[in-house]
Specification:
- The protein is of the alpha+beta class.
- The chain folds into two domains: 223 residues, no CATH class; 263 residues, Cupredoxins -  blue copper proteins (Immunoglobulin-like).
- It is 38% helix and 25% strand.
- The chain is built from 15 helices and 20 strands.
- The longest helix is centred in the N-terminal third of the chain and has 40 residues.
- The radius of gyration is 33 Å and the shape is elongated.
Length: 527
C-alpha cells in the first residue's frame, strides 16, 4: 500500500513537473513574440509612421468611438516623441521579463494593461489590419494571454525556469514582489525535474530560438521596404494630421504690380530656412526664397534689364536659376555658400510665365524642399486686357514627420515620385477654403507655373472652358476651345477664363490622385 502511494506521488510530481516546463515554454515563446515586436518598434519606420497608424485606426472605428480616437490622436500629435520612446521601452521591458522570468507579477500586469491601452487607441473594432472590416485586434488577444499566463502560474507557484526563483532564494522578500502565486504556493518545494524535463526544456529553447530567427527574417523582408504608392497610406502624411479647420490665411494669389515701370528692375532674392504651412495646422521645415513657398512673385516687362541680387542666408549652398533669363549659367547660376551673394543682370527678352528655382545639386531636393517661385514677363504687345489676374504655382510636397505636426522633406519619396501633397501656392486646398473671386463676364487670367519638381499638371476648371490658352506670352499663339491643358514640370502657361454664369467652379489638376491630395481650389463667380 505504501509503495502504491509512493508511486502515485512520484507520478503526480512528474506530471506537475511537465506542467511547470509547459508554462515556462509558453511564457518564453510569448516573450519571443514580444521581443520581435519590440525590435520592430526600435526601427526608424515605426517612429515615422506612428501617428499614421493611429490615424488609420481612427478611420476604421464606428462613429460612436470617433470622439475618443480624435481625443487620443490630438494628445499623441503634440507629444509624439514621448509616446514613441515610451512604447519602445515598455515593450522591451515586457519582452525581457517574459524571456527571463524576471519580475513576473509586474510583467504580467504591465503587459495586460499595455495591451489594453494599445487596443483601445490603435486597434479597437477595426484598425489598420483589416481595412473596412470589424475585428477585435491582436492587442486584446495579447491582454488575454497575459491574464491566462498569470492565472496558470498562480496555480503552479515557483518555477526553476525563471530568474525570480533564484533571486528569491537569495532575497526572500523579492518573492512577494515578483512571484504571482500566493505565499502558501510558492513556499512549497518545487517539483523534481528529471533528465526528461531538462531535455524538454532544452528542446523548447531550441524551437523558440529557431522561431525567433524565422520571425525576424520575415519581419526584415516585409517591414523594411520603403513606402510605395501601395503602402504609403500607413505613413504619416500632412493631410492625415491636418486640422479640420480651414487654413487661417490663404497665400495671396493676385499678380503683383510691375517691380518697375522704367527700363530696369532690381530683384533681390534671399535664401533662408523657414517653417511654412503646407496644410491646415501642419508646418514644414522648408528651404525658401524670402521665407515663403513659393517665393515672391516677380512681375517685370519684356525688354527690361533685370538686375538680380541673390543672397544666401541659408545653412547650405544655394543658387538661383531664372527660366526667364538667357545667360551663362556657370556665372549667373553659380552656387553661393552661406552668407555669400551672387549678382548678375539679364534682359527679359521673352514674355510669358516662368519658374525660378535653386539650381544647386541635387536640384530635386532643393526644389522639393521649397526653393522655387514664379516670374511673369509682360509682352510688349499686350495680351487682351484681363479684369482679374492670378498666379498659381503647382508643386509637390514629399514629407516625413519630425514631431507632432512638424514635417520635413523626404528625399527617397522625391526619388520615388510619391508625394504626400500636390498643391497650389504651397498649401493644400487653401483656395477651396478661401476661394478666388471673379464676376460673371470678367476675363480671369491665370499665370500658371508647374514647379514640380517632377509631376506634370493637367490644369482644368470644372464647369468651364478656357477662352484662351497662351503657351507663351504671344497673343498670336493663343489656343481656344481647350478644357484641359498639360503643363510640364518647369513650364509656365497663361490661361484666360470667362465664366458666363455665377457659381463655384473648382480649379483642379485633372490627375485625380493629385486633386485628392491638395491640388484643388475654387473660383467663386458672382453677378
Amino acid at each position: 500500500m505504501t509503495e502504491a502511494l509512493s508511486s502515485d506521488s512520484v507520478e503526480e510530481r512528474r506530471t506537475f513537473g511537465w506542467l511547470v516546463v509547459t508554462a515556462a515554454g509558453v511564457r518564453a515563446a510569448f516573450g519571443i513574440l514580444m521581443a520581435i515586436d519590440a525590435w520592430l518598434k526600435w526601427r526608424p519606420a515605426f517612429a515615422a509612421h506612428y501617428v499614421g497608424y493611429l490615424q488609420n485606426a481612427m478611420n476604421g472605428q464606428p462613429p460612436w468611438l470617433a470622439a475618443w480616437y480624435n481625443f487620443w490622436l490630438r494628445i499623441v500629435i503634440q507629444h509624439t516623441s514621448f509616446f514613441v520612446l515610451a512604447t519602445r521601452l515598455i515593450e522591451t521591458a515586457i519582452a525581457i521579463g517574459l524571456l527571463l522570468g524576471l519580475a513576473r507579477r509586474i510583467t504580467y500586469i504591465a503587459g495586460a494593461l499595455f495591451s489594453l491601452l494599445i487596443w483601445s487607441t490603435a486597434e479597437g473594432f477595426g484598425g489598420p489590419y483589416t481595412s473596412g472590416a470589424t475585428n477585435l485586434g491582436p492587442a486584446l488577444m495579447y491582454a488575454l494571454v497575459f491574464v491566462a499566463i498569470a492565472l496558470f502560474e498562480r496555480l503552479l507557484g515557483s518555477t526553476p525556469y525563471s530568474l525570480d526563483y533564484y533571486i528569491g532564494r537569495q532575497f526572500p522578500r523579492w518573492r512577494s514582489i515578483a512571484e504571482w502565486a500566493p505565499r502558501r504556493v510558492w513556499e512549497r518545494p518545487p517539483p523534481t525535474l528529471d533528465m526528461d524535463h531538462q531535455l524538454a526544456a532544452l528542446g523548447a529553447i531550441i524551437v523558440a530560438v529557431a522561431l525567433a530567427f524565422a520571425s525576424l527574417g520575415s519581419a526584415t523582408a516585409t517591414k523594411a521596404a520603403p513606402p510605395t504608392p501601395q503602402n504609403a497610406e500607413a505613413a504619416v502624411s500632412p493631410l492625415s494630421i491636418a486640422s479640420g479647420a480651414p487654413v487661417a490665411h490663404a497665400v495671396p494669389a493676385e499678380l503683383p504690380p510691375l517691380i518697375s515701370n522704367g527700363d530696369t528692375a532690381a530683384v533681390t532674392l534671399v535664401a533662408t530656412d523657414a517653417k511654412v504651412e503646407i496644410a491646415s495646422g501642419v508646418q514644414f521645415d522648408a528651404w525658401t526664397f524670402g521665407g515663403t513657398v513659393p517665393g515672391p512673385f516677380l512681375h517685370v516687362r519684356q525688354g527690361q534689364l533685370i538686375n538680380v541680387t541673390f543672397i544666401n542666408n541659408g545653412n547650405m549652398t544655394h543658387s538661383i536659376d531664372l527660366h526667364a533669363a538667357q545667360i551663362d549659367p556657370s556665372v549667373a547660376y553659380r552656387s553661393a555658400n552661406p552668407h555669400e551673394k551672387v549678382e548678375f543682370s539679364f534682359v527679359a527678352q521673352t514674355p510669358g510665365a516662368f519658374i525660378y528655382h535653386c539650381g544647386t545639386a541635387p536640384v530635386l531636393q532643393h526644389i522639393g524642399n521649397g526653393m522655387f517661385g514664379a516670374i511673369i514677363v509682360d509682352p510688349v504687345q499686350p495680351l487682351p486686357p484681363a479684369d482679374v489676374n492670378y498666379v498659381l504655382v503647382q508643386s509637390e510636397w514629399y514629407t516625413q514627420q519630425v514631431s507632432g505636426t512638424e514635417m520635413s522633406g523626404d528625399y527617397q519619396k522625391m526619388l520615388n515620385m510619391t508625394p504626400d501633397e500636390v498643391v497650389f501656392n504651397g498649401v493644400a486646398f487653401q483656395y477651396s477654403q478661401h476661394p478666388l473671386t471673379a464676376k460673371v463676364g470678367q476675363r480671369v487670367r491665370f499665370y500658371f507655373v508647374d514647379a514640380g519638381p517632377s509631376l506634370y499638371s493637367a490644369f482644368h476648371i470644372i464647369g468651364g472652358m478656357f477662352a484662351a490658352v497662351y503657351p507663351d506670352g504671344d497673343a498670336n499663339h493663343a489656343q481656344t476651345g481647350v478644357s484641359v491643358y498639360t503643363i510640364a514640370p518647369g513650364q509656365g502657361v497663361i490661361f484666360d477664363a470667362i465664366m458666363q454664369q455665377p457659381g463655384k467652379y473648382p480649379i483642379v489638376d485633372h490627375s485625380m490622385r493629385d486633386m485628392m491630395i491638395g491640388a484643388m481650389g475654387v473660383l467663386s463667380v458672382s453677378q
